[in-house]
Amino acid sequence: MNEPQALSISQKQLNEMLGILVKNPSDILLSGLCRRYLALDRWKNGGRYLKIHEDLNQGVMPGSIEHNRRELEKDDFGSFTRTLRLINPMMSLGQVYGHAHRLKVLSIGPRTEMEILHLIGAGFNPNNISAVDLISSSPLVDVGDMHKLPYMDKSFDIVISSWVLGYSRDPQLAVDEMVRVCTDRGLVSIGLTYEPGYGRGVVANNPTEDEIVGSMYGSVEELKKLIGEKFDYVYFQQEPESDEQSGPVMLIARIRH
Ligand SMILES: C[S@@+](CC[C@H](N)C(=O)[O-])C[C@H]1O[C@@H](n2cnc3c(N)ncnc32)[C@H](O)[C@@H]1O
Questions:
Q1: pLDDT, tens digit (0-9, with 9 covering 90-100), for 37-46
Q2: Domains and CATH numbers, the chain
């Protein structure tokens, strides 16, 4: 019996598919490699002037800006794909699948345009995406602080905080702000990595050069407590299997005002 053949694509098929992409350039952002190329190219050619948020009094962990500036200079911006761990499950939800183009999204702490390109690739309309970070090299990213978001109440259908909450010494204020700017029945999506060595809650007030840990959570329950009574449904959650294991803590919840 013949072995099943791996998918092979002929030169003719490849050329025709390239032709399809040329006619539909927005589809190019469906490719992770192309998103990566575009984010790096835009950063290298023109994005290197950094605007920096000045008022750090609300809840910003000391050292956050210096640490993230260093990460930004790395070849992979610190991480190209981490945020997809939140975006991918969100895309399968009934209120998002097929509706992304008309939903308003706020990305908190994207660090670069990479997260914004992921959102566009997933189907969100670039005109409906806002982003805010303490540092910005992009016209697509506002300069601001998650503890005092520069947006009106209930302005976004989806609020994403992908690996950002750890930089807070007042995570309750940061989450209250996420909830405030989210619409009724909108989605708040939070991800971070639990590292058992750091303990829980607001833990490290004297960060080292490399490690900035303002707050640390090891379970979804702790994230739910921060949202308090302001959610009524959890669509997606994951946490490490035990307190001794490091791993992602992720939550996508529906907000009720
Ligand atoms: C680890 S990066 C996450 C990048 C991206 N979201 C991801 O998941 O790969 C954290 C980002 O949050 C930003 N950040 C930290 N504290 C912030 C604050 N108080 N307000 C807004 N952004 C903040 C940092 O400047 C950095 O760009």
A1: 999 999 888 7
A2: 25-255 (3.40.50.150)
Q: DSSP letter string over 215-250? A: EE--SHHHHHHHHTTSEEEEEEEE--SSTTS-EEEE
Could you give the CA distance from residue 245 to residue 197 in angstroms, rounded to a whole number?
A: 10
53 lines ligand 1 (CB under 6 A): no
Q: Is the CB of 252 under 6 A from ligand 1?
A: no
The tens digit of pLDDT for each residue in 159-197 reads 999 999 999 989 999 999 999 999 999 999 999 999 888
User: How far apart, in whole angstroms, are the C-alpha atoms of residue 13 and residue 22?
Assistant: 14
Q: Please say whether the beta carbons of 71 and 111 come within 8 A.
A: yes
pTM value is 0.93
Give distance in angstroms: CA of 161 to centre of ligand 1. Answer: 8
For the chain, what's the residue count? 257
Q: What six digits make up the tokens of 98?
A: 């097929």
Residue pair 239/216 in contact (Cβ under 8 Å)? The answer is no
